[in-house]
């Protein structure tokens, strides 16, 4: 059921919007990714469900092998991400910088960046001046945009009792130095904030990874137990056919 919902959401997202900005930032269309993952999940769970109901060894073995491959791929991704953390950080930096460039191209991407900057109290990739990479916020003299040398409102420091958000609060912030700008906006980049968050929540991430791994391992174990039981029943039936006798007597 979950896989079917994922496929439906992916198809809806693909039909309703083409997500060009997401393609430029992530190199993979999230809608297509959702559809592919949903289809693969459906096929794997279908093999496990029908295989157990029909006691089909072929389907159960397919289910067990697929779960094992998925588990090993997740394990390899985690190990490689830990060993090659510098390359992983570089990839994250590339994604964030591309997202900054395409900030105005997609409303969903814009909302995602704004949420991330407000949640992590950061601005840009490395610093708030990264917003000069965006054509609308670019700080060059020949930029005709009204947002020239500005940063998004999500970079701004807001008072706790502020009822109305000033969306123009980031106007001209890139023209200020770090000390001056820090009185009005977050000057630290989101990359370091994200890395620090990961380091401070390793136990939480490990718990999530363990929570994903345990059902897979249980599924592999139970499918192998059921396969062995089916094989034992087949051997018993063959034995009975050969000896033409009731095995209980």
Automatic annotation (TrEMBL):
Q: Which GO terms describe its cellular component?
A: adherens junction; cell surface; cytoplasm; pore complex; tetraspanin-enriched microdomain
Query: Where would you find the membrane-spanning parts of this chain?
Result: 31-53, 65-84, 202-227
Q: What is its main location?
A: other
User: What are its GO biological-process terms?
Assistant: pore complex assembly; protein localization to plasma membrane; protein maturation
Q: Give an example GO molecular function.
A: enzyme binding
Q: Which InterPro entries match?
A: Tetraspanin/Peripherin, Tetraspanin_animals, Tetraspanin_EC2_sf
Disulphide bridges in this chain?
A: 122-155, 123-139
> Would you tell me the protein name for this molecule?
Tetraspanin
What organism, scientifically named, is this protein from? Terrapene triunguis (Three-toed box turtle)
Task: Identify the taxonomic lineage of the organism of origin.
Answer: Eukaryota, Metazoa, Chordata, Craniata, Vertebrata
